Amino acid sequence: MIYVRVRLGSINLTLPVKERYNSTAMERVYIPCDRCGNDIEYPDDLMVSALWGLIPKKYHRVCYAEREKEVVYQIFYQTYPVNFGMGNLVAVLSPLLAIGLAWWVWQETHLFALVVLLGLVGIWPLVLRLFVYWRWERPLISSFSIR
Ligand SMILES: [Zn+2]
User: Fold this and answer.
1) Which residues contact 2 (CB under 8 A, 6 or more apart)?
2) Which of 2, 84, 91, 124 has its CB surrounded by the most CB atoms within 10 Å?
3) Alpha helices in 3-84 (DSSP H)
4) DSSP class of residue 142?
5) 105 Cα: distance to centroid of ligand 1 (angstroms)
6) How far is the CA of 58 from the centre of ligand 1 (A)?
7) What is the value of pTM for the model shown?
8) Which residues are close to ligand 1, an ion, with C-beta < 5 A?
9) 119 C-alpha to center of ligand 1: Å?
10) pLDDT digits (tens, 9 = 90+) for 71-123
């Protein structure tokens, strides 16, 4: 709710005004590419890769393709984008796999620390995927749809 201050002579009134648009949706978002530094403007142009499979980095489609050719990229980054096909599949399957594996490890060894570690490793791709959606994809989609 937004409040508007109205002045009538010596009387000050504060009136509530209904918001017409969702204020977060109205904001223009700036999502700079981690390679060229320019803004990523279209939802379809966003490609996310993860450094060591841990830290998400965002690129234009073209910049991502350029990145893929570099040796450093091939060593330190996961070889598929987080926010497309394979990344989505991994995000869903990895926690399930980790739960199964953790259960088996627990039955066999009763090493709680190992089970926790497996759980964390397994859940991370899903956390990463949701983070990318919430932080970059969703704002881009809503920003794009109002233009
Ligand atoms: Zn770029």
Assistant:
1) 16, 17, 18, 19
2) 91
3) 23-26, 61-68, 71-76
4) H
5) 43
6) 8
7) 0.71
8) 33, 35-36, 60, 63
9) 34
10) 877 787 777 888 888 889 999 999 999 999 999 999 999 899 999 999 999 99
CA 65 / ligand 1 centre spacing (Å): 10
Angstrom distance (rounded) from CA 116 to CA 114: 5
Indicate left, alpha or beta for 37 from its phi (over 0: left) and psi (-120 to 50: alpha). left
Residues in Cβ contact with 131 at an 8 Å cutoff, skipping those fewer than 6 apart: 56
Q: Facing residues of 63 across strands? A: none
How many CB atoms within 10 Å of residue 74?
11
User: How close is the Cα of 43 to the center of ligand 1, in Å?
Assistant: 13
